[in-house]
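Changelog-adjacent note: as of this version, every example in the card shows the full chain rather than a window. The one below runs 151 residues end to end.
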Amino acid sequence: MGCGRAVGGYAVRATKFFGTRGFLLFLLALVYSLLDTCAMNALTTPRSLLQQIAQIPHMERGKLCVLREGPQGPYYNHQTWEGGKNVSRYIPQGQVPALQQALAGYERFQNLVEQYAQLIIDKTRAELATGFKKKTPRPSSSWPRTRKSSS
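Full-length structure tokens:
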């Protein structure tokens, strides 16, 4: 009962924040991302990750914020960091779903890039580990060695 109330509370807050349509688009993007991540974990290769990255149609950095509630619904702004400064833009209600999808696209991009980097790091470490197992002898010097007497 406690979990249901907590999840329900988040759903109510998210619906107020995104609106019903935006909330449904957000949930759809989240479910798609989770299903895609679970399905790809078994067959993840660097090439498949790069192909998935290439399939992302839109991306946007930052976050969507509700400025205030008005008579026709909430007023939104998009905040992002550009050129060392925080930049805010007003977003009309009609553009909110597209921006939410672009923000989800960027989040997906970041996730896939992190997976790609980890695969390459693991591969590099494995190759380095196999290379260090054999100790190669130091190259011999061209100078003749002379023994010191022990007298």
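Structural remarks: Helices lie at 2-41, 46-54, 96-133.
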